[in-house]
Amino acid sequence: MRKFVKDLTVAGVDYPHERYVLLKLTDDELLPEMLPGQFVEVKVEDSPKTFLRRPISINYVDRESNQLWLLIQLVGEGTRKLAKLRCGDKLNVVFPLGNGFSPMGQKGEKVLLVGGGVGVAPLLNYGKELSESGAKPVFLLGARSKSDLLELDMFKAIAPVYITTEDGSVGEKGFVTQHSLLETETFDRISVCGPKPMMVSVARYAKSKGIPCEVSLENMMACGVGACLCCVEKTVKGNVCVCKNGPVFPTDQLTWDL
Question: Quick one: how far is CA 168 from the chain centroid?
Answer without folding.
Answer: 24
